[in-house]
Specification:
Strand order of the largest sheet: 1-3-5-4-2
Structural class: alpha+beta
Strand content: 5-15%
Radius of gyration: 29 Å
Distance between the termini: 45 Å
CATH class of one domain: Alpha Beta
CATH topology of one domain: BirA Bifunctional Protein, domain 2
Shape: elongated
Length: about 575
């Protein structure tokens, strides 16, 4: 159940005309009174002898207890209370009880006999509106400070009492929801999302992995957004606003939103925090110039390998680092998801986009991110954007599956981290993102995993048995389950490939199984395939999937390609985990 306190107004009759009218899209059905402060207020909805002016004249008299110059200019209090879509339809009596509880909790009518005058109007099955006059019967102003938080707290109790959908309590760090006016405007324009929501997504995408103010604004301009910069007299840049070219006000002027009004972490100072390495260099005693210089990324598959390695490292930091470091990793993970959604192939993009959208909520809490420690993930996001769009097949498609697989576990790790700290909304958002990532993974992995399975099915019996023995030795508790999975042949082929290029498969398996989430995976064999191929620097999609290893594990066709440039760069000390 969601209560929403709207902006205070000065026109009681104007709000009553809306509440008892047909609505912007004629969606108000049977508007009628369900409760009022005195239980006897006139109902212009169902009483043919009552008018909206009668109800106004009942609500406004406390204003006249004050001298004209003492009366509040904005005296109309307005709160809507909406049930969840899957909640049962409540009766008028139940909505009346809910209205009384909300006005008591918010201080509008606390039950002391001298509260504000109010009325609750229902014009749809799933919600009511409460209108009140912000002067009490004794002439004093009501104590309705932080009425929004107080209403939310009471709504959580109402959900329990009425067995309704439980809404995760917030902590004040969520982005501002679109207003009713913004939603109606989007509907009139035929847009699925409001301008605020579209701009928030665009700004997040532009900031993902950006390395400077100029790059950030260049990306915003490339998205077609209108930009206004706030410049100090000294010439320093203080802030920015953005607008959609086709989102106009009544004067046909673009409607601009400041970054801070789109989301708390999209103000210019908060975005600039991401570009500083001072936290890392100060804590480690290393100058920024001493940081190793990584080779530039020019290929999508290379960028995805680097992102997979950084994601693995981030999971370890979230688990074992301090709170500020963990919060920074989770926030940077949002940038990686934004970059993946922007650059991945069409068949994975919708689910990746949804994952990025919902994970956005998991990126903010009252734990302040200590920037600098998130450099590897932010560099990965930068590389994903600058390497360009990935194809859906070959090494591009396989490494996309690899990084999505890693991202699923990072989202789960973030959900667990938030849940331990009672960040309910953030934990739920991270879990929801993990579900979208699972769906995206199925689309991305279908082709490369199928190719690896075919290679595994053609393994010589002796080689196949060797891999099975190795698996039972390394993972005795899970070996039987893994061998029963459809992906086992792909894992067997990967173990054979790793041995062929000089690795000890047992050591690789030991490293790959350190994560506690392994036994919760939908397909353990798939997870191990990507972890092994990443850590062994194996091609994610072998160039010749038809090749069949011989009895000693060697390939019967052309030899495995030399370690690609991507893998060589991955061996750089800064990427060693």
């Amino acid at each position: 159940m969601i209560p929403q306190i709207h902006k205070q107004g000065s026109n009681t009759l104007g709000l009553l005309n809306y509440l008892y009218g047909k609505g912007t899209h004629e969606v108000h059905v049977d508007p009628h009174l369900v409760a009022s402060f005195d239980h006897m207020a006139p109902d212009p909805g169902r009483d043919p002898n009552a008018t909206k002016q009668d109800l106004q004249h009942l609500l406004d008299p406390p204003l006249h207890l004050l001298d004209p110059d003492q009366r509040p200019e904005k005296h109309v209090w307005h709160c809507s209370v909406r049930a969840a879509p899957d909640d049962p339809v409540l009766t008028d009596e139940q909505w009346a009880d809910i209205a009384r509880r909300i006005v008591a909790a918010t201080g509008i009518d606390p039950g002391d006999g001298a509260g504000c005058r109010w009325a609750a109007v229902r014009h749809a099955d799933d919600h009511i509106h409460i209108i009140a006059t912000l002067v009490r019967e004794d002439g004093r102003r009501p104590d309705h400070h932080r009425s929004g938080k107080r209403a939310q707290a009471e709504a959580r109790l109402i959900e329990t009492d009425y067995d309704l959908h439980r809404v995760n309590p917030g902590d004040g760090t969520a982005a501002k929801r679109p207003t009713s006016a913004e939603r109606h405007k989007a509907e009139r324009a035929g847009r699925e999302r409001t301008a605020r929501e579209g701009l928030r997504e665009a700004v997040r995408g532009a900031s993902a992995g950006a390395a400077s103010t100029d790059e950030f604004f260049d990306r915003l301009a490339a998205e077609g957004l209108l930009i206004r910069k706030r410049i100090a007299p000294s010439g320093d840049l203080l802030g920015y606003k953005v607008a959609l070219p086709n989102d106009l006000n009544k004067d046909d002027e673009p409607v601009f939103y400041a970054g801070s009004t789109l989301a708390p972490d999209l103000s210019l100072p908060r975005i600039r925090e991401r570009w500083s390495l001072q936290a890392t260099t100060a804590s480690e005693g290393i100058s920024e110039t001493a940081q190793p210089t990584l080779p530039p990324v020019t290929h999508p598959a290379f960028a995805r390998r680097r992102a997979a390695a950084a994601t693995w490292q981030a999971m370890l930091i979230v688990d074992h680092g301090d709170e500020g470091m963990a919060a920074a990793q989770i926030a940077a993970a949002g940038e990686v998801l934004d970059a993946l959604a922007k650059t991945s192939a069409a068949h994975t993009r919708p689910e990746l986009r949804q994952a990025a959208l919902v994970f956005e909520r998991a990126c903010r809490s009252h734990v302040r991110a200590v920037r600098g420690h998130d450099h590897a993930l932010r560099r990965a996001a930068h590389d994903l954007v600058h390497s360009g769009p990935a194809l859906g097949r070959g090494e591009d498609g396989a490494t996309t599956a690899m990084v999505i697989d890693m991202a699923i576990f990072l989202a789960i790790t973030a959900a667990n981290w938030h849940a331990k700290r009672h960040h309910h909304q953030q934990a739920a958002a991270a879990q929801q993102a993990a579900e979208h990532l699972r769906t995206a993974y199925q689309a991305a992995a279908a082709h490369p995993i199928a190719a690896l399975r075919r290679r595994g099915q053609r393994l010589a019996p002796r080689v196949h048995q060797r891999q099975a023995d190795l698996l039972r030795q390394a993972l005795p508790e899970l070996a039987e389950r893994i061998q029963a999975e459809p992906g086992w042949p792909a894992l067997a082929a990967t173990l054979a490939d790793a041995r062929q290029v000089g690795h000890d498969p047992a050591v690789l398996l030991a490293e790959a199984t350190r994560r506690r989430e392994l036994d919760t995976a939908d397909s353990i064999s798939d997870v191990l395939v990507w972890r092994l191929r990443r850590s062994a620097h194996l091609p994610a999609a072998p160039e010749n999937p038809q090749a069949t290893p011989t009895r000693d594990g060697r390939n019967t066709s052309a030899p495995m390609p030399a370690t690609p440039p991507a893998a060589k760069a991955a061996k750089h000390p800064s990427h060693r985990l």
